[in-house]
């Protein structure tokens, strides 16, 4: 039953937002809608994903798109909280269109705490204090790996097979080359 409801809602969304450049279907269960204009600090991308049990359960609402990097974390949290509250009242029915339109109607109210200019954001970042005390962790290997350059990551990936494991023979030694360098064992 849920898949039938999802297919029906998908058809409706495609017909409503056909030609709307702000609406993007990422896959058959994930949708993005962009509010505002490019470069405006009050613009953001809302992503709604359907779990298997949708519409009998809440959709997954996200503002984690790279486009939203300029938004304050408290503003993002407030938008998600209010959207989940709105979605809670629509459980059991198709709600993606309702949520997208609800954000359009309440856009100004949702973005009250978002600064109008990016200078304000950067001044908040400049005021952050950094604690120099570093605790040694067991995640040193992961931290080192994430600090690799793009070329280093590519070389590392090229040395792996499709499963992320090192290919057979990656540490084999060329016996002839090794013996020619070491001189081999002396017969007594």
Automatic annotation (TrEMBL):
The protein's superkingdom reads: Eukaryota
* Membrane spanning stretches: none
Q: What would be one Pfam family of this protein?
A: RWD
User: What SMART domains does the record point to?
Assistant: RWD (SM00591)
Matching CDD domains? RWD-RWDD4
Which InterPro entries does its entry note?
A: RWD_dom, RWDD4, UBQ-conjugating_enzyme/RWD
Q: Which PANTHER family match?
A: RWD DOMAIN-CONTAINING PROTEIN 4 (PTHR21275:SF1)
Q: What is this protein called?
A: RWD domain-containing protein 4
Native organism is Daphnia magna
